[in-house]
Amino acid sequence: MAEAAAKTVLDKISQGHLECPICCCLFKDPKILDCLHSFCLMCLEEMIKSRQRKTSQIQQKITCPVCRRDTQVPYGRLKSLSSSFFLSSLVDEVKQQQAVLREASARTATCDCGEGKEATWRCLDCSDNLCQECRKAHGRVKSTKNHQIISLGDWRKSKLPPAKHRKPITRMCKKHIDNPLCFYCDKCDTLICSMCAALDHRSKKHKYLKIADSVRFFRSEVDSTLKKFKKCEQRFNYTVNSIEHARNRLQKKLAQARSDISAQEEAEIAKIRNKAKLLTEKVDEIGQERDSEYEKALMYNRNQMNRAGEIVKAVNDLMSQADDLEILELKPKVMHNLEFQKEFKFEPANHGPSFIGVKCQDVVSDADLGEVCVSEKWQLKEEFGKRGTGDEEFKFARGVACFSNGDIAVTDTELGRLSLFTSTGRYKTSIAQGDGCRLLKAPDGVAVTHDDLLFVTDKKKVEALNDELQFVSDFMYVGSMIGNAVAVDTKRVAVADGGRMVINIYNFNGSLISSFSNDMVDKDVAISNRDRLIFTNFKKKRLLCVDFKGNEVFSVVPLLNGEPAEPTGVLCDGDGSICVAVQSRVHGDDEVQKYDSNGAFVATVAQGLYNAAGMAFNHAADIVVADGVSVKIFERVNMAEAAVKSVWTISQGHLECPICCCLYKDPKMLDCLHSFCGKCLEEMMSKQKPGAEKIICPVCRRETQVPEGGLQSLSSSFFLSSLVDEVKHQEVVLGEASIPTATCDCGEGKEATWRCLDCSDNLCQKCRKAHGRVKYTRDHQIISLGDWQESKVPPAEHSKPITRMCTTHIDHPLHFYCDTCDIFICSMCAAIDHPPAEHNVLNIDDSIGSFRSEVDNILQKFEKCRLRFKSTETSIERAQNRLQKKLAEARSDISAQAKAEIAKIKNKAKLLTEKVDEIGQERDSEYEKALMHNRDQMERADQTIRAVNDLMSQADDFELLELKPKVMHNLAFQKELKFEPANHGPSFIGVKCQDVVSDADLGEVCVSEKWQLKDEFGEEGTGDGEFQFAAGVACFRNGDIVVTDTKLDRLSLFSSTGQFKVSVAQGADCHELEAPWGVAVTQDDLLFIADQKKVKVFDNEVMYVREFTPLVDDQEMSESGLTGIAVDEQRVAAADCRRNVISVHNLDGSMISSISNNMVDFDLAISNTDRLIFTNEEEKRLLCVDFQGNAVFNVMTLLNGTPAKPTGVLCDDDGSIYVAVEYQATGDDKVQKYDSNGAFIATVAQGLYNPMQMAFTPTGDVVVADVHSVKIFERM
């Protein structure tokens, strides 16, 4: 083990200090360069030869492979370099020790005398193994007697004594070879012997000393130099630390700058989002208002229609169920009710408000922008109390708190009273000084917990009461303080003593949590949701905030009209904001101000207070303020409110009285044809003022004149009476039908097998026969009891006709009806009181027939009115739907603009951050260079110092003095050693952020649709990009615009900005164009062209694809003239203006249908409601048909109130229609907008010269072919 350890030590020594850095082997003839690094002679020679081979030049210098310093090659080449004798001796020693170890590893050692005897001793000087005899001989020989000899066992165990066993080396003079070197000449920097000193170094210029003294002085000089280096090293460390500190500060400032940029970016983005939010809210507000108008119009029209429907239903029920006499008797009322058509008016469908949009604008600029503040306002909702000492009166209402049921507790410090009121201010109860066994001495501050526990500060106690002001518990203050104010949160109670300027914090059970003093504590305190205490100081005019340990968070001065004002009550909101009541010098000019959680003023939220003190939130989140002699309840108007609308429903039964909700009893009919029980009407009439002559219908609120005979003289509703009787009868029938066995009503107990429907009797077989024999019953309808029980009743009437008798001539039935008097008459009345010359007397059957015919005519008119209503309702609903669509588009536009503006801000932040990073990297690079330079300098110095230290510790005196010039030369590095100083200036970097969002709104709300000219290209001429008559226009998905010129018979292609690309003229290729007119582009970018008799298809590069002919008959083809063309997702429609035909095809050209209409002209469009829209210029009409050719509408186009010629037509996605209209004056043509039912909405574009076809671009703009130019309009 000892041998292995010794071997390991030798290997480490040899590897760390005795290996050449070039060949990594033990040194062989080591040479020392000027930098004091040593290398094998052979390695240096090989290195310099290699350099000479590469450069083909003799190398005068050699560069150290370790430190890269140059050494001048001496005249005698590399062999003349100083040899490292101590390295050579060390290498020899290591080799010797390694050999010793190898020999010691053998199990049996023999003596080196050659006699083969076993060795037991080891001479450390000769390195010989000795037997016992040689051991004795070794001690007898003069030259070896002083050698150190140890036992071989001890030697093997490496138990070597610490003393050196190597003899000192004696160096001889080269000039006087018999004389040893014993002096060192400082002048010549060389070792000399005594002869040299006597012969060559005798002058005073030469100063030589003994080698030992010279070595001692040399070591002293080196030590002094190394001490100086220590100071230099300290200076280096300080410089490096300083540079690193500056560098770290730079990184910190860079991070801070990035953080500032990010914060400013977020702030600016927040502004953009806030602007987008405000603009969206404005759009929503306008949208809701307009939607409400549409809803009102729909409700009004539906109410009108429901009212009319009720009248029509009542009339239909009357005409179908009442008998002729009753119908004629009610004829005046029926005709009066049917006059509703004269008053029947619908709210028209106003499509103007259905448009809403936003005109967005850029708000991000270099200009500064002030802070956007959305102020909160409070609105007085209710007030109760006045000056006095009564129950509902106050002398000084100071403290206020609210329970969860809305009840309000108020303290009056002047009266020493605690009062309880309802949420509306109605007095409930109170506790005054001296009331009850639990005396209230001076109630002041109040606060209510979530559990409805009321804490009241009462001098030196805190009383806890329930929501009925009944005592629950109390606790004493710590330190005999007097409580002025109290505040609670979910688990703590804070009590402020303005006299002792102390705030104590308690648990709900009264146990003390903490207590702290503050000379600003006064009479008001609140707890925020951020674990902070907010309080005011009235005299010192301060609003303060501390944490629960008393550490101050902020302290601000409330201002009123720019001057410091006295704060009183304080209240914390759930969002951390703070409301403070502030008193003014002017009576009645106090106000409540709002601050954020950091004490920054936000806004004034309430004004007009007189002596505001305590404040609290009630159950509805309103704010209750104790204001001296009254209590005010403020509503926060910026809070969202929900309104609940009740919808009245119509009674499901037709035979129930709307008043009592029971089956009619003696039903009476009012003039509005609504019926009610006679008794119900009498009860209702009795509640009116005495002498009232009119009764109001509870259903429709129409008035009916009470007849002279009273309510009983009102018309009876006989048909309702009969229906009620029938229902009751059916109930009885159903009840009887449930009896298992029915007996005959003759009373003999026989089983009944028949049922008389007229008598409602059960009949046996004998009674059935008797029923048929009796004169009065022989005509009754009789059926089997089984059929009757199964309700198999034939539909024929089974009740006897009612014969009405004349009330004047009671023996005469009523056979006539006098239209003049609107009354039934008998024959005697007709002869005596109603002569034919003056009265129009008709037979009842003729009169009822005439009346029914008249009612039918009126009802037919109502059906037309119903259709008109449905059309109006549909139109309003379309306008409403369009409004919702435009609202969604407006919100989307706002969101897109906000995103674009945010992208600008992010880009600005990115650029600024990149600039900061660029400067930071540049400066950090400078610091890195300084550090690298200083470290390189120091590392080089360290290498020199290590080499000098190694040399001083290992070399012998001769070698030290021999290498002294080189050592001193290397130690002169301090003169060249210069560190880069620590420049702290560049370590600072920051950003001075500025606002880039301007004061302008994000966009403008457009409440009516207008087109704004965005771009225009083309002029009159025949060249490329010029037009003689631009008629057709269409757009590809990439934005390219294709235009037809009907005078030049040319098709041209332009970019989206109007730059000419290519054209196809008449006869341009084998698929020549004859007379291109209308054009249309599909979703797949296929261009369909109406070209006289054919439809030709091109791609988006105006290359021919295919063609088809709409008509196949030769004669028809000769007469054909295709002009207009339109496409949708799966169809193409072509208009033939010569034959007045529209042909509908699949996109491959196969025929679907053909529609003839003599109004077919030049232009055509397909709407998204599967309709064809076209115009007729000569007849000045805008028409719509379905795909079967059925007319939907046909309207005249007007311009300034006079008929105008329509040309181009275009359909939008919402079903609306755009029509180009020509006017008499040049340059005054317009584009009008119509709804899907042909109703005019608005004029959207003006200033056109001769507009023809129109088309949408991919971005939603509108391209109009306008004779000599093409105009692009942006829809605003």
Automatic annotation (TrEMBL):
Q: Which PANTHER family match?
A: BONUS, ISOFORM C-RELATED, MEIOTIC P26, ISOFORM F
Molecular function, one GO term: zinc ion binding
Q: Which SUPFAM superfamilies match?
A: B-box zinc-binding domain, NHL repeat, RING/U-box
Name-wise, this protein is Uncharacterized protein
PROSITE patterns given for it? Answer: NHL, ZF_BBOX, ZF_RING_1, ZF_RING_2
B box-type domain location: 106-152, 168-211, 739-785, 801-844
Q: Which UniProt keywords apply?
A: Coiled coil, Metal-binding, Repeat, Zinc, Zinc-finger
> CDD domains in the record, alphabetically?
NHL
